[in-house]
Amino acid sequence: MKNFRYLENVATVQLDQATCIGCGRCIEVCPHQVFVPEGKKVMFADRDACMECGACALNCPVKAISVDAGVGCASGMINEWLQAHNLGGTGGGSCCS
Amino acid sequence: MPCISTKLGFGDHLGACKARWGFGRMDFIIPPGLYAIGHPMATDPVLVTANYKMSYDLVRKSLDGRNIWLLVLETNGINVWCAAGKGTFGTGELVRRIEATGLSGIVSHCQLILPILGAPGISAHEVAQRSGFRVIYAAIRAADLPEYLDNGLVVTPEMRQLTFTFYERLVLIPVEIVLALKSAIIIVAAVLLLLTALGNLTAGIAGFCAYLGACFSGLVLGPLLLPWLPGRSFAGKGAIVGLIWSTIFYFLADGSGWNGPVTAALFLALPAVSAFYTLNFTGCTPYTSRSGVKKEMHIALPTMGVALTISFILLLAGRYLI
User: Which DSSP string corresponds to A9-31?
Assistant: First the structure.
């Protein structure tokens, strides 16, 4: 993504190259071009660009990718925390609702 | 089978405008189901979208002059991207909607075209196993659909490239302001009363304006200036616009007459307020990760709390000790 970059060294996405069958689904669904083909497999091109949407892991037919997926939304996470501690919160537990 | 137009009318634009400002946003929906655009045949493509009317309007508008099926999923009025994150634009709903609409009896192929930003909720191989339909992911933006369809369903690198232009950020701000107002009104009233009690009504009104300006800086300026503000942390970017606002306010309100602690309190509290609101904008962007926001919050929220506490102590000191 041009002109925008978030924090480095926090991404939780993991790729198990031994399991990868190189179908390329992850490349197709990633909006941040985190993966590139490497022979008959894929490899990370830009792991720090990952926004942890989870599309790659969900669409990997052999479960070669894992990621702690979720929405990177501060107000949603504050709401989640408030609800978990029974302190109220605006309901819904995340954004866009 | 409802046959729908590709032309948006005044009501559609008005509805979109109201939704952008948070009015009737959750009612801006259309019934889920299968819709026909033009006069589609059994061989024509099937596109899938959410039942947030703004998403549906953008998709049908881009399909002018074509014969296409549009399968609308029940996402409770949430757009594709957010609904995919929640799982409502998801495998289960897609499979259910294929069955409920009897799609396999209407089209002669087994192919569904989905937006790339719907992929966080959809497991393509599971959809294939459960419904027999093959999922292919098209472009990110509805505006790219004509080119995608004309080019034999080829996704170009540009169609995969996310953008977050000035205009794309601008249209997200109104609803953020409306949502923030609810809590801001209470705090602003508290600031007004507190400063009036500590000093006088003039001080109260000055504090009221200073706080509102800090909210505005964090809610509007932070997001608009996002790519040009230094650093990567949203709270950091918000603190910078807050600092700029503090400086402007200092000169507007003739801060040369204030004592040291009050001046310091202003320069501590206002950036903390702006930082909070710009940090909240992380939920609107298409590039912030959950881990990143978590890390940022662990540092930023306590820092804001400390800054506000010190600011309050300084105000008291400025009032009673000097």
Answer: S----EE-TTT-----HHHHH-T
pLDDT at A93: 41
Indicate whether B153 and B178 sit together in one domain. no
Same domain, B156 and B171: no
| 3-class DSSP assignment, residue A48 | helix
Interface of A with B (CB under 8 A): 1-8, 10-12, 25, 28-29, 31-33, 49-55, 58-59, 61, 68-78, 94-97
pTM: 0.90
Task: Express each pLDDT in B108-147 by its tens digit.
Answer: 999 999 999 999 999 999 999 999 999 999 999 999 999 9
Q: Please give the residue of chain B at the shortest CA–CA distance from A29.
A: B116
Domain boundaries, chain A: 1-66, 70-97
The answer to whether A73 contacts B233, with C-beta atoms less than 8 Å apart, is: no
Residue of chain B whose alpha carbon sits nearest to that of A56: B120
The two tokens of residue B130 are 């459960």
To the nearest whole Å, the CA of A9 is away from the closest chain B CA by: 9
Report the DSSP pairing between strands A41-44 and A35-38: antiparallel
Does the structure show a pLDDT above 80 at B77?
Answer: yes
The CATH T-level fold of domain A1-66 is Alpha-Beta Plaits (3.30.70)
Q: B33: left (phi > 0), else alpha (psi -120 to 50), else beta?
A: left
Of A1, A11, A28, the CB nearest to B291: A11
Is the distance from CB of A58 to CB of A17 less than 8 angstroms?
no
Predicted confidence (pLDDT) per residue in B156-208, tens digit: 999 999 999 999 999 999 999 998 988 888 988 888 888 888 778 888 888 88
- Tell whether the model's pLDDT for residue A91 goes beyond 60: no
CB-based contacts of B231, cutoff 8 Å, min separation 6: B237, B240
- Residue numbers of the domain that contains B246: 167-320
